[in-house]
Amino acid sequence: MDERRTPSPCSSRPSSPRTPPCEMFGPVGIEAVLDQLRIKAMKTGFEFNIMVVGQSGLGKSTMVNTLFKSKVWQSPAPNLDVPMPQTLELHSVTHVIEEKGLKLKLTVTDTPGFGDQINNDKCWDPILSYINQQYEQYLQEELLITRQRHIPDTRVHCCVYFVPPTGHCLRPLDIEFLRRLCRTVNVVPVIARADSLTIEERDAFRSRIQQNLKNHCIDVYPQQCFDEDINDRLLNSKIREQIPFAVVGADREHIVNGRCVLGRKTKWGIIEAPISRT
């Protein structure tokens, strides 16, 4: 197994025979392992690196802030005097989020300029190069004899790909990029600004995208190799039925039936965010 792809899509492994349980003559204290792991996890915390990819104006920054309910990422205000960048750029920002004593080191990588040009040929090369570079950097640290006690994990754990809500199907740019991206990292496609589509349009759009993914052999998360357990298989099947997820981002709170909710206020009501309906 290629260590550079951990925890990216895994490869199939041969099943090992079941080992019969050993007869025990008394307690040995292994029940304390779970408590020890929990204490260690609470002390060190976790790292999660997410990349968001999509055209400008699809609400990537708002969606990230909605997911983590904080000002994780803030897009620069549009300036008509500043010309649009001619090449794709990668910007990363790191925050430490703490909830009930558990710390999460969150790194968000944005890709401004993706798909915004007239000629988008090979616009995905900087993204794939960045992802592979992080894998290589982590692998080189692991290969050292006197490596660090805690290796900084800069690998991209998940890539959220924002599909424009056209209501038709995946564009050639989406297909070509996803075909290359799914071989390198876990990909989660989402329908951006899903509130711009009716329920019927959204369901038809999702069905066409699922067919596009199947026809072009695009293996998004969760992959089939995660279906080893029967419970995981059932859960993953339900998740695959809802891919791509329909998402709505919001950064303002509103009072609905006496409770404060995060959502967007429209003429016909308030849309709570984030949402994902089947």
UniProtKB/TrEMBL annotation:
PROSITE patterns reported in the protein's UniProt record: G_SEPTIN
Region (Disordered): 1-23
Annotated ranges, domain Septin-type G: 44-278
Keywords: GTP-binding, Nucleotide-binding
Any coiled-coil regions, as ranges: none
A GO cellular-component term linked to this record: cytoplasm
Domain of life of the source: Eukaryota
Annotated Low complexity bias: 7-16
Gene: Septin12
The name this protein goes by in its record: Septin-type G domain-containing protein
Keyword Nucleotide-binding attached: yes
Provenance organism: Rattus norvegicus (Rat)
InterPro entries the UniProt entry points to: G_SEPTIN_dom, P-loop_NTPase, Septin
Keyword Nucleotide-binding: yes
Molecular functions (GO terms): GTP binding
